[in-house]
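Our consortium's second objective concerns turning raw sequence data into structural hypotheses that experimental partners can test. To show how far this objective has progressed, the report includes one record in full. It was chosen at random from the queue rather than selected for favorable results. The single chain below, 506 residues long, was entered without modification.
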Amino acid sequence: MKHWPHSYPLALVIALLALVPVGVLTVLAADSAQFFDTHNLKVLGNTLALMVLTALGATLVGVPLALLTAYVRLPWQRVWLIVLAAPLAMPSYIGAFTLYAAFGPGGELNQWIGVPTPAMHGLAGATLIMVLYTYPFVLLTTRASLLSLDASLVNAARTLGMSVAASLWRVVLPRVVNGIAAGGLLASLYALSDFGTPAIMRLDTFTRVIYVEYNAFGLSQAAMLSLQLLVIVVLVLFLESRAKGTRERPGRRLTLWPNRWQVSALLLAALPVVLLAIVLPLAVFGVWLLREGAGGFDIRYAWNSTYASLLAAFVAVILAVPVAHAAISGRAGRLMERVTYLGFGVPGIVLGTALVYVGLKLPFLYQTLGLLVIAYVLRFLPLAVGSVRSTAEGLDPNLAKAARLLGASPREAFMRVTLPLTTRGMTAGAALVFLEAMRELPATLMLGPTGFETLATYLWRVYEAGYFGRAAIPGLLLVLMSGLGLALMFSGERRSEFDVAEDHRH
């Protein structure tokens, strides 16, 4: 692929566009009257507390489940891994919404079983939701490291009389600590960037306060808060990039805990997580659907989501092609690719704040579908770039060389040989962008045209209005989209032992 330098100019332009939101926020924040005050200190404390508690909780849940799925010969092994990873594919705001409605006096559980349950709100509620929907990060990164280990050291330790638990604690876990740290940092980054859960749990974190400032027309203060949030995001991304998962040349696969009662005990420990993260939200939506039917729902909401997401997927794949091929061509191209990854690390609420200001300065873009699609593309372009690049890297370079020898120009060789062979990666990338755009909430709330409701924004409106029963259909449709995303995430796997952790190491 070194023969394709023509992708550099386009890749450079796309990389510069990815930097626009940061530049806009810097300019906008210059008009802010306050850089930091006592309220900001409280917001910072809440945000850091949620990050730390999420990382700890996700680690406590994810590491045992990683050991279970990596080392225990379970029946339906692939099914168990998919079920345990499923919460990662579901938007956390759906879990927050349904659990908020289910718990507390007068909640759905109170009506079903007749026993009062504690309310779900504040730091405790937000932490529980975050742990339920981020532990798969730790599960997948830790499992990837575990599967790369050679069992010889563990077998030697057990031969010398060390118990199973001691061998895990003293031999296995120290060798996968980087994988655990990577998963924990990804979980904390998710908690840092999420808007829906803190807002529903009424916890003042950066994302919620930014949205409040935006609604109060305090765009400059929202930009200042966004820059402060970005500083933390960059720090977490740096730490995550330093935490490389353990990779060894595996020998024999380690197999532990063959006793049925021990396996049953661990599965029983996983049961509450699956019930709270998957089963209870589906049950709540099902009850609402039976109780209130389709009242208030308009099929146009689903069409709006589909149409905007399809446009974003199409544009993202077109832009991903030159970036991906530039990344393969050399070091400068790889730098351009890394710059485009900035969008995926920027929270949707921050990107929305920047593009609102762009819309105000360019009235022909303000509150238009075009601006919303731009936000989706900037946010999810790395998903398309990664898919296209992984496919292009697997191509035989001799095919393009043969075309050149037959008289084709570099552009003709690319268009007639390389590009058609990367269509699989382009399709997968477009599907990932489409699914993520379908469920994006904060950027859609801030940038969507007036009267343009999507599934995510309609669900948010009925939450704010208190008409919870009307959330059933959009909620179930979003869950269905999440299920398709999970299927796509695992679609490339052909064996029961598979590793998807690197797909989340952006």
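The partners drew two points from this record. The CA atoms of residues 191 and 370 lie 29 Å apart. The radius of gyration is 24 Å. Both points have been shared with the crystallography group to help prioritize constructs.
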